[in-house]
Amino acid sequence: MSTSTINFGPGHPWGGVSQREYQRMAQDPRHQLAYRIHFAALGWADRHGHASFGPGKLAALLGVNPLEVWSPSYAASPTVRPVQYSRS
């Protein structure tokens, strides 16, 4: 049996999550909204670690009003930003 490892170098531990489980937890209203947004970001992340949600898609996945997802408290975060869409 062969194993492959991911190595970021000495002293650089890493971990992984089940994206399916994180997708499930993102849609579970028993969790606080901030955690659900975190779960969605990791649950739908691509191979580069980025999650892209079109207009209204994140709110639809979470089952909330879009204004709840993009509130002033989240807007103040340096890691949360609106996506600019081009019409090309």
Account of the protein in words:
This protein is an all-alpha fold. It has a domain at 19-75. The chain is built from 5 helices and no strands. It has helices at 19-26, 33-43, 57-62, 66-69, 72-75. The longest helix is centred in the middle third of the chain and has 11 residues, at 33-43. The chain is elongated, with a radius of gyration of 16 Å.
What is the beta-strand fraction? under 5%
Structural class designation:
mainly alpha
Number of strands: 0
| Low-confidence spans | none
> What's the overall geometry?
elongated
Q: Whole-number average pLDDT?
A: 79
Topology as a string of helices (H) and strands (E) = HHHHH
What fraction, in percent, of the residue positions are helical?
Answer: 25-40%
Assembly state: single chain
| SS field, number of helical segments | 5
Question: What's the gist of this structure?
Answer:
By secondary structure, the protein is mainly α. The chain is built from 5 helices and no strands. It has a domain of 57 residues.
Strand and helix layout:
Layout: H1 19-26, H2 33-43, H3 57-62, H4 66-69, H5 72-75
Helix pairs in contact: 1-2
Any descriptors?
88 residues; mainly alpha; 5 helices; 0% strand; elongated
